[in-house]
Write a structure and sequence with these properties.
Blueprint: H1 2-23, H2 37-43, H3 46-90, E1 99-101, E2 107-109
Antiparallel strand pairs: 1-2
């Protein structure tokens, strides 16, 4: 049932388009003498110059924002290094040579008296 409605919709759209195309040559073109201010402005080189100036400004602005973001990132990294170095000194560490394997493959840590 839905297929029938789709076919009818496409036929109606095609008929409307056909009628519009047939009526197209009857439409008279507007005179070119009456150009508005916006038409003349759009045809001039002014929009291109404005676009070029805006692109230059945007490029400089984005580069400066990138530098600011990198400075902020650097400051955050320094702060994290300070915090992590304080916490890292509190944790007891071990070295690889402290861990040895016994004959059965079980790993154990040597006590300090065996050194």
């Amino acid at each position: 049932m839905m297929f029938v409605f789709t076919i009818l919709l496409m036929l109606a759209l095609g008929a409307t388009l056909y009628l519009m195309v047939r009526a197209l040559p009857r439409i008279e073109e507007e005179s070119q003498a009456e150009e508005s201010f916006l038409d003349r402005w759009a045809k001039s080189r002014i929009p291109e110059r404005i676009d070029a100036a805006f692109n230059g400004f945007l490029l400089k602005f984005l580069r400066r924002m990138k530098v600011v973001a990198l400075k902020f990132d650097n400051a955050v990294s320094v702060g994290l290094r300070k915090v992590s170095s304080d916490e890292g000194s509190k944790k007891p560490g071990f070295e690889i040579k402290d861990i040895v394997e016994d004959g059965e493959g079980v790993r154990k840590k040597e006590d300090d008296s065996g050194r």
